[in-house]
Write a structure and sequence with these properties.
The chain is of the alpha/beta class. It is 17% helix and 32% strand. The chain has 4 helices and 14 strands. The strands form 2 sheets. It has a 7-stranded mixed sheet with strand order 2-1-3-5-4-6-7, with helices on both faces. It has a 7-stranded mixed sheet with strand order 8-9-13-12-11-10-14. It is elongated. The relative contact order is 0.13.
Length: 247
């Protein structure tokens, strides 16, 4: 019998002890857990929130579990439920829940201690997961107040994929397909063509294309947009302006 898919979004890698410890705890509390890891930069709650939203809201097997484990600074663990009976568990830290607001039932606090300052506690996260996995009604507390979940920042880098694609929080391309836009991220600038995401991007060309709805992404045909812009961190502002026309 196949196990329950557990999508773990964390700021450590598969070779870290933190992953090994949490993975074996999840195996104890989620029968036949099939743990898959997505890694984000250290302390990057914006990237973690973007990934959690993508994994919880995109098509996938019903009943899967999305777990966020980004250094939380002692924030309380929470739970929310997306369509398809997808449960999301993680601390309310930074933007971890910002991409899920309005898309999940909750989030609600869990009856789990908040931890000690910046200390990461796999045991506390596992306690949160077992309350959700076992459907313990007494383990779910009050809803998280809306003012405790920050809005998604506008026009910033949200997540950089392993292929160098830059997912942003730019809501829709501010120009028509085929137009040229000058893109600035930090000290780097390049000209991108607005595309509809269907046609392949020309080798070496920068494209501003539809990303995860309703946001836009930057990609380079056969290359890396992240490298082009100096490997920007999550939260780096992205500025767009019409490119100067060449007559």
């Amino acid at each position: 019998m196949s196990g329950r898919l557990v999508q773990l979004v964390a700021d450590y890698g598969p070779g870290d002890l933190a992953f090994a410890e949490l993975a074996q705890l999840l195996e104890l509390v989620v029968p036949n857990a099939d743990v898959r890891l997505t890694t984000v930069p250290a302390f990057d709650s914006l990237a973690a929130g973007w990934c959690a939203g993508r994994l919880a809201l995109c098509p996938g097997p019903p009943g899967r579990l999305v777990v966020l484990d980004v250094a939380s600074g002692g924030a309380r663990q929470c739970v929310g439920r997306a369509r398809g009976h997808v449960d999301v568990v993680g601390a309310n830290t930074g933007w971890a829940w910002s991409f899920l607001v309005g898309e999940v039932t909750g989030p609600c606090f869990l009856e789990v201690p908040a931890g000690n300052g910046s200390l990461r506690s796999p045991q506390l996260l596992a306690e949160a997961v077992v309350r959700v996995s076992n459907r313990q009604p007494h383990g779910v507390c009050e809803a998280v107040p809306a003012e405790q979940i920050p809005p998604i920042p506008e026009s910033v880098v949200a997540f950089v994929d392993c292929d160098g694609s830059i997912e942003t929080t730019i809501a829709h391309a501010p120009s028509a397909v085929g137009d040229q836009m000058r893109v600035h991220i930090g000290d780097f600038a390049a000209t991108a063509q607005v595309t509809d995401g269907h046609a392949p991007v020309r080798e070496g060309a920068l494209a501003l294309r539809p990303g995860v709805q309703p946001f836009s992404a930057l990609t380079v045909g056969g290359g890396s947009a992240a490298e082009l812009f100096g490997d920007p961190r999550g939260g780096a502002p992205v500025a767009l302006a019409p490119a100067a026309r060449r007559d």
